[in-house]
Amino acid sequence: MTRRRVRTPNFGAFIITGAVIGLIAGVILGGSGPNQADYAGRTSVALLGGVGAALGALTGAIAGLLLEWLLNRD
């Protein structure tokens, strides 16, 4: 009888990598857009960077869960 080895990805690495990629994408989008008259350009960079980091972290967590499911299915 052999025991099946359960493999799990490093979820922290997936979440942090997704957050960093999302942050970079958000900063690029925020910096490349037109400046609005009612707020500073740095505000849009910070806002889109934060939203991008959150969405990237969520995407990284989902990717880690999907990879775990693929690695451990029978």
Describe it for me?
By secondary structure, the chain is mainly alpha-helical. It has one domain. Helices cover 73% and strands 0% of the residues. It contains 2 helices and no strands. The mean pLDDT is 87.
User: Roughly what fraction of the amino acids lie in strands?
Assistant: under 5%
How many β-strand stretches?
0
From the N-terminal CA to the C-terminal CA, the straight-line distance is 16 Å
* Backbone shape: rod-shaped
Computed Rg: 18 Å
What's the tally of helices? 2
Number of domains: 1
Mean pLDDT: 87
Low-pLDDT sequence parts: none
Major sheet = none
Helix-strand makeup class: mainly alpha
**What level of helicity do the residues show?**
over 70%
Keywords:
74 residues, mainly alpha, 2 helices, 73% helix, rod-shaped
Summarize the structure.
This protein is mostly helical and about 70 residues long. About 75% of the residues lie in helices and about 0% in strands. It has helices at about 10-30, 40-70.
Helix/strand layout:
Layout: H1 11-32, H2 41-72
Helix pairs in contact: 1-2
